[in-house]
Amino acid sequence: MTDMLQVAKREIKIGLRNPWSYSFLLLFSVFSVSLLLVNSQNAVSGYSAITGSMLSLILYLLPLMTLFLGSFSLTGEKEEGSWQLLSAYPLGTMPFIIGKYAGLSVVLLTIVSFGYGLMGIISVLTGKAFELNAYLLFFAFSCGLVLLFLAAALLVGSLSRNRWQALTYSVMIWFFAVIGWTTILIAVLGQLPYLWIKPALTALTFLNPAELVRLFVVIKLGGGSVLGPEYYEWVTWIQQPGGSLLFFVVCLAWIGVSIAGVYWIWERGRSRG
Amino acid sequence: MRNRGVVPVLILAGLLLLLPALAADPASPVFAESSAEAEAAEQRLPSLQQLVDEARPGDTLVLTEEKYAGPAVITKQLTIDGGKTAILYNETAEAAIRIEAPGVIVRGVNILQEAAGEETAAVAVHADQAVLRELRIKTAGFGILLRDADEALLDRNEISWLSTSNEADVTMGQKGNGIDLYNSHDNRIERNTIAGMRDGIYLENSNGQSIEDNRLYASRYGIHCMYVKDVRILNNRGESNVTGAMIMGVRDVHVAGNIFAKQSRNVNSQGILLFDVQNSVIERNLVEGNRVGLYIELSKDNQVIGNSIVRNFIGIQFKQAEGNQIQSNDFVANVIEAEATDSRENELAGNYWDSAQGLDMNADGISEIPYRINPFYQELIAKTPAFQLFFQSPGMMFLSGMYTEQEERWAKDGAPQMKLNTALAAAAPQLAAGNMAAEPVISDQTLILIIASMLLVTAILTILYSGVSKS
Fold first, then answer.
1. Using the beta-carbon criterion (under 8 Å), do A46 and B333 form an inter-chain contact?
2. Extended strands (E) in B257-390
3. Which residue, B182, B212, B234, sits at the end of a domain?
4. Which of B16, B165, B254, B364 has its CA 20 to 30 A from that of A130?
5. Same-domain status, B137 and B17
6. Does A129 touch chain B (CB under 8 A)?
7. Does A114 contact B354 at a Cβ distance shorter than 8 Å?
8. A72 CA to chain B: closest CA distance, Å?
9. A241-271 helix and A132-159 helix, angle to the nearest 10 degrees
10. Min CA distance, A224 vs chain B (Å)?
11. Same domain for B174 and B140
C-alpha cells in the first residue's frame, strides 16, 4: 500500500512537471471555452444535435490526450531506465502499476477539472450557463473517458518499446475507437447474418470505451428515444437509478481487466529481464 | 317506465327463494350470493327515472342522496345537479342518462356504467343544446354519445374505462369511445379528461366543432376526426396514445397549440396524423418523443407553421402529399428529421433544424446556406435498425459527411432559421418530467459557480502542491 502511494505521488509530481501536461491543459482550457460557445447556440434542454456535436468534440480530444500522456509515462520508465532502477528495489509489479494508474488519473483529472472549472465560471459570468444536470454529466462523461482510456493507454505503454512506438499505437487506437469505429463496424457487421448484427454490435460496444461512455451520456441526457425501439431495454435499464451504478461497475470491470493485462505483460518482461 | 321496477323485484324474490337451493351446489354459492346482494342493493337505491318523471319541465333536480339507480330517460327540459357527490349506478345495457329533450343540463354527477352493449354509453344525447358539465364517468362501453345533437356543451367531464374483472385484458379496439359524435354540429367540447378509452374524442360527419383544452391519455386515438368540416382543435394535450390526433377526410380544420407526447409504443404511432386533409392549418403544436411527429398523407395545400417537433424518431413524414407549406417549425433532436415518399412541391422554408450548419452573413437570422437533409443515416438504419446505436456518433458524422450521392434530390430547406422559431420547445422537458419539484433553494447558476470554482481551485492547488513546490 505504501509502495503504491509512493509510486502514485512520484507519478503526480513527474506528471505535473511535464511540459506536455501543460500544453494539454492549455489546449483543453481553450477547447472547453469553445465548447461553451457551441453550447450557447443550444436553445433546448436535454439532448439535441448540438449536445451531440459537443460530445463528439470531447471524444476527439480527450482520448488522444489520455493515450499520449498515459503511454508516454510508461515508455518513459523504460527509456529513462528508472524501471530498471526500481526493479532493484523490493517493489511489486502490481503496486507499481496501480500507483502509476492512480497518479496519472490524478494528473489527467486535474487537467479536466481545470478546464471544466474555467468553463463553468466563465459560463456563469457571461450568463451563458449550462443546465446543472448537463454540466455535471459532461464532466462525468469526460472523467469516464479519461479513466477508461488511461487503462488502454497503460496497455499501449507496456506493449511499446519507446515513445515513437507508443505514439503510433495511440493514434491507431484513437482513430479506430473514435473515428473509424462506425465505418468499420458497418462494413464488417454488414457481412454477418442479420440476426447476429445486434448482439455483435452490443458486445463490441462494451469493448469500445468511447462508445460506451457516449451512449451512457446520451441516454442520461434524455436522448434515449433517439436510439429507437431496438434499444428500449437498454434505455429503461440505464435510466433507472441502479443504471448509473451498473455503468460504474462495467467501467470498473473494464479498467480491472486492462490493468490485469498490463500486469501480465510487465511480469513477463520482469522475469525475462 | 315505472312498472319496469317490478320485474327486478320478481327476479330478486325468485333468487332469494332459490338461494338455499343454490347454496347446496358447491360451485356457485359465492356468485349467487353476490349477485343477489348487488340486486338487493340496487333495489334500495332511489330510481333517477322516478325523480325525472315527477319533475316538471324547467325544474332543477338536486340529487341529495349518495346513490341513485339508472337508467333514466329525460324527455323534458330539466336541470340535474349531482353536486359532484351523487353516484348514478347503471347495470342495464341502456344509457345511464338518455337525453331526448333540448336544453337539458346535467352537472356534477358521477356515473358508473357497468354494462356494455352495442354503442351503450353512460350518457346518450339525442337532442340539441344539452349541457354536460363536471360529470365523472366510468364506463364499460362509451362515455358520452351525441347523435343528431347540435350546439351541446361538454365541459370538464372526466371519462375513463371501467375494467371489470372478467374482461381484464380487453384490447383498445374493443373499448368504447370517450366522446363520440355523429351528425352533430356546432358543439363545444372543452376541458374534458379522457383516459384509457378507444378514441378519446371521435367526430364523424359533424361540422363546426370546437375542441379545446382537453386531456387525452392512454387511448387509441386521442382525437379522431372523420369527414368533418370547419373544426377547431386547440390547446389539447395527449400522452401515450397510439396516435395523438388522427385527422381524416377533413377540410378547413385548425389544429393549434396542442401538445402530443410519447406516442411511440406502437408501430403505427404518430403525434399528429393528417390523411386526406385539405386547406387546413396546423400551427404551434408541440410533438415530442413520438414515433412520427407529424405524418401527412394524401393531403394538399395545408399550412404547417410554427410547430415544435422535438425528439421524435421521424420528425415529419410525407406520403403522396403535395403542395403543403412547412414553415417556421423547429426540428430538434429528431433521429430522422424529414422523410418523403411520392411527394412533390411541399415547400420547406424558414424552419430551424438543430443539425443544420448555417451561415448568416447579413444578420437577418436566416442562413444563406440552404440545408439539405442527408439521407445516409436514414437509409442505413432502414436496412439495419440495430445501427441506430451510431446516432450522431463522431464516426457517423464523418461518414455522412462523405456521402453526397444525388445531393440535388435531397429534401431541402432553402432558408433555414439560425435560431428557434418558438419558445414552445422549452416546455418539452417539463412535460417529460411531469410535475417538476418546487424551486430549489440554490439556483442552478450558483450551484454551477460553486462546483466550477471548487474544481478549478482543486486543480490549481494540486498543480501548485505537486508541480511547482520544490519539496
1. yes
2. 259-261, 270-278, 281-283, 286-288, 292-297, 303-305, 308-310, 314-319, 325-327, 330-332, 336-341, 347-349, 352-353, 371-372
3. B234
4. B364
5. no
6. yes
7. no
8. 18
9. 20
10. 9
11. yes
> Are B53 and B27 in a shared domain?
no
Q: With contact defined as beta carbons under 8 Å apart, do B44 and B20 qualify?
A: no
State pLDDT tens for residues B372-422: 888 888 888 888 888 888 887 888 888 888 887 777 777 788 888 887 777
Q: Give DSSP secondary structure letters for A5-21.
A: HHHHHHHHHHHHT-HHH
Is B86 inside a domain boundary?
yes
The size of the A-B interface in CB pairs under 8 A is 187
Query: Does B161 map to a domain?
Result: yes
**Residues facing B273 on adjacent strands:** B246, B295
| pTM > 0.80: yes or no | no
Give the mean pLDDT of chain B: 81
Q: Which of B309, B303, B270, B304 is nearest to B288 (CA)?
A: B309
Residues 161-180 of A with CB under 8 A from B: 178-180
Complex ipTM, two decimals?
0.81
Positions in chain A whose pLDDT score sits under 50: none
Say how many domains are in chain B.
2
Instruction: Say which amino acid occupies B37.
Output: E
Please report whether residue B260 resides in a domain. Answer: no
Residues in contact with A88: Cβ distance below 8 Å, sequence separation at least 6, in sequence order: none
- Is the CB of B455 less than 8 angstroms away from the CB of A180? no
Supply the range of the domain harboring residue B11. Answer: 2-37
Q: Are residues B123 and B102 in the same domain?
A: yes
How far A190 CA sits from the closest chain B CA (Å)?
A: 9
B355 touches chain A (CB under 8 A): yes
Tens-digit pLDDT profile for residues A137-184: 889 889 999 999 999 999 999 999 889 999 999 999 999 999 889 889
Measured CA to CA, the distance from residue B124 to residue B96 in angstroms comes to 8
